[in-house]
Amino acid sequence: MKVAIAFVIVIAAITMAPSQASRPALAVAFLYDLTTSAVPLMLNKQVADDRQLEDVTGCLVAEIASTDTLRFGFITSHLYLSRPYAASEMPDFYRKVVRPTVVSPDNRAGPSPIWDAIDKTISSMTTDSGRRAVIVMTDGLSTGNVHSVSEVVDHANAAGVSISGIYAGNPFALWKEWPVHVGDTLSAIASDTGGLYVVPKGEDYREVRQTSPVSKRNLNKAIEQIFERLRR
Predict the structure, then answer these.
(1) pTM above the 0.85 mark?
(2) Can you identify the CATH homologous superfamily of domain 25-230?
(3) Which of 16, 64, 187, 213 could form a disulfide with 197 if both were Cys (CB 3.0 to 4.6 A apart)?
(4) 3-state DSSP call for residue 197?
(5) Is the pLDDT of residue 48 over 50?
(6) Dihedral sign for Cα atoms in the order 37, 195, 225, 23
(7) DSSP secondary-structure letter at 135?
(8) How far apart are CA 218 and CA 200, in angstroms?
(9) Cα–Cα dist 213/109, whole Å
């Protein structure tokens, strides 16, 4: 009987070890675009009124493993960025960390310096332990930047930080003709830094965000796809 028990323990240890080794620790910074082009229906409301923000926070928290950390930030005319939170601090993360954030409507109605926000986030993550990654949920309509896209990509690669994106904004922006399409820019940034760009679809529609709100299920799919890429 003792021999049999020892045998089972050894087998369990052997089969679990590769799984543990295949999940590198991640240091993730998630940036949510609160500017009026990305969330126009929220202009005169507070963070607590954004149901989709609550949904995406829940999806993120579900992906945070025991050795990971998570920063949460908001893109407005300037950057709101939290400290890194450990996995042990994830319970009730939305209510304790995200929801209490107060963002001025004036900051939301101003410019949208998305590239500068990403660049500043990369600098803030210098001492974060693990495989570092920025995930930005935005429409990609960036204005008022000091840094160019190429400068941000160079900074990310030099710092060993990947940049991933989730499209959020007016669905018609995806269909309009642009000199450089917003989706192409975000997709190129992700590709050049080892990240992934995802466009989640509205439930039963070929639209996203306001015209057809993205379901939590589809948000979860987008988050899962990105985390699968990050853990490779």
Answers:
(1) no
(2) von Willebrand factor, type A domain (3.40.50.410)
(3) 187
(4) strand
(5) yes
(6) negative
(7) E
(8) 6
(9) 22
